[in-house]
Amino acid sequence: MDNSPIRVLLIDDSKDDYILTSNWVSEFQISGCELEWLDNYQVAQQAIAQGLHDIYLVDYRLGADSGLELIRNAIGNGCNAPMILLTGQGDRKIDLEAMQVGVADYLEKSQLNPPLLERSIRYAIERKHTEQKIRQQVTLLDVTQDAIFVQNLDGQILFWNQAAELLYGWEKAAAIGKQTQELWQENNLEPLQIALKHLKKNHFWEGELHQKTRNGQDIIVASRWTLVHEFGEQPQSILVVNTEITQKKLLEAQFLRAQRLESIGTLASGIAHDLNNVLAPILMTAQLLEAQIKDERSLRLLPILINNAKRGANLVKQVLSFTRGLEGERTLLQLKHLILEIKQIIKETFPKSIEVVTKISQNLWTVFGDGTQLHQVLMNLSVNARDAMPNGGLLYIEAKNLFIDESYTTMNLDAKVGPYVVLTVTDTGTGISPEILDRIFEPFFTTKEVSKGTGLGLSTVLGIIKSHGGFININTEAGKGSQFTVYLPAQETKETLEEADIALPPGNGELILVVDDEDSIRDITKTSLESHNYKAITASDGIEAISLYAEYQAEIFLVLTDMVMPLMDGLTTIRTLQRMNPQVKIIAVSGQSINDKLSTAHNMNIQAFLSKPYTANQLLQTISMVKNTT
User: Fold this and answer.
1) What is the pLDDT of residues 378-434, one digit of tens each?
2) Most CB contacts within 10 A, which of 74, 192, 449, 603?
3) In the 8-state DSSP scheme, what is residue 495?
4) Which helix (H) or strand (E) segment is 296 a member of?
5) Distance CA 398, CA 485 (A)
6) How many CB atoms are located within 10 Å of the residue 125 CB?
7) What is the pTM (predicted TM-score) of this model?
8) 560: burial class by Cβ within 10 Å (0-12, 13-18, 19+)?
9) Tens digits of per-residue pLDDT, 209-241?
C-alpha cells in the first residue's frame, strides 16, 4: 500500500455508531485514514456512484432500506472498491447472502474493536489491489501470442491462456485438469525426459519440441520451462511458454537448402564447362566424317558416336539447367497444349494400371518460356510419379491461375507478388520419406537402381523453373503419395506460334575469326566453317584475337569468341574489338550458364549467342541469322 490517506465512507443511520467508529479510526495504526459519514440510502447511492472512496462500511439496516441491497446495486453498477457489511447481530443466512453478493468482509458490531476493524479494512484493500493486479496479468497473458500454461509435475494442466487455446485447439474449460498427453502428442519423447531432468536441477529449461495438435497439425515450438513454487494448492508446478516457430523453421530449411544447391551448382557449372569443351570437337568432327567416309562399317559406327556425344551434351545441359537455368528460346506459351500432349504420351507409354486425370482452368493465362524445357518439366514429374506407383494408381495434373499477394511471399522466399500459372502433378504412390526430402533436388541424387536413373530429373526441373522466374513446392507423405506444385509467372497476352525452320545457305567465302582457348574446338570449328564455303582464322586467347583483328580488320566478316578464357576473357576482348571497330559483328560462345556475363554482353550490342557444345548446323544457322540481320 502507498502512503496516500485511506478514504473510508461509513453508511449507517445511527449517529452514535458513527461517533464510536470515528473514535476507533482515530486509534488506527494506519496513518492518514479519513472517515466520512452518510445516514441514508439515496445519498449514499449517489456518493458511491462518484467513486471517491477507497472502501465502504455499510450497515445492514438503513431505516426502511437494506444495506445489503445497496451493496448489490453498487457492485452491479460497476463499483470496484471493497465493501464491508456491518450488522448488529450474527446471522449465518445474512453472512452467506453477503458473501454471494460480493462483500469483502462481514463484521458484527457487538464483536468490533479498533484492531479488528483496522485489520479488516487493510486486508480488504490489499486483497482488492492483489485481485486487480492478477486480472491485469491474466489479461496480458491472454493478449500475448505465446501459448502460456501451468502444469503440475504429473503433467496436469492448472492454467491455460487464450493463445494456448488457438495453438492446440482446446478451450480453457476443457484443458484445465487434463493431462498434457491428452491435449497434444509429442513426436519425440526423449527431449521431454531431458527437459525434466534439467528443470529439476536448474529450475529452468529451454529448447525446441516437435508436437502434433488436436487437429493433427505438426508444429515446432520454442519452449521455455520455469519451476514455480506454490501455484494454487500445488507445492511445485511448471510454467511453460511455447512460441510456435514452424513457419520460421521451414523458411530456415528453405534458405539452407537453397545455399546447399547453389554450392553444388557452382561446382557442377565448372565441370560442365570442361565437359562441353571435350564434347564440342567430338560432335563436330563426327559430323564432318559422316559426310566424307564411304565405307559401310564406319557409316554404321559414326551415328553411334554422334548420338552418344549428343547424349553427353544433353546431360551437360541438364546440369547447367540445374545450376542457373538455360535461357532457351522464349515465347508466349499456353500450357494447356503441353498438358494435353503429355497426357497423350502417358496414355500411350505408361502402364495401363496408371490412370491419368487432367484439369485445366478456363481462360488459363499464358507464360513466357521455352516450350521444350517446360515439356521436360512435366515429363520428368510424370515419369517420377509413374516410378512411384509400381502397382498402379492415379496421376493427376492440374493447371490454374493464381495471384500471389504479399502475405504469401512472407511464407516462401522465392515467391513474388503477381499473377502465376500453377501446375500441380499429384500421384498416389509411395511418397518420399522425410530423411531424403531435403536432397531430392540435388544433381545425381537418386533412390533408383543404377541403370534406371541419373539423378538429374528433379534437379533439371528445379533449374528450368528457376530460369523461368518460378518456384516449386512439394507435399508428400510416405505411403500416401506426393504432390509437386510448380509456380510460373503468368502473362496476360496470347501465345506465340512457332515458326518453321529456315533452310541454311552456305557461305560466300566470308572470313571468320574463331577465338577459343581449346585447341580441338578451334580446329574443328575452322574445319566446319571451311567445309561450308567460309574462311577462318583462329586465336587461342583475347590478346591474340585483338592482334589478328588489327591485321585483318578489313577482311574479317565476323568474330566468334568464347566468353571464358585465360589472360583476357570474352567480355574484355569484345570491348576492345568494339573500340577498334564499333560495327564489328560478334557471336558470343560459352559452355557455362553465365547469365550475368551474357546479360552484360547483350547490352554491348552482341549479334548472337551460341551455347557449347554446338553442332555444325547450329553454328551455321547462327551465322546465317547474323548475316540476314545486317
Assistant:
1) 988 998 899 889 899 999 999 999 888 776 776 677 788 889 999 999 999 988 887
2) 74
3) P
4) helix 296-323
5) 9
6) 19
7) 0.41
8) buried
9) 999 998 888 899 999 998 877 655 555 788 899
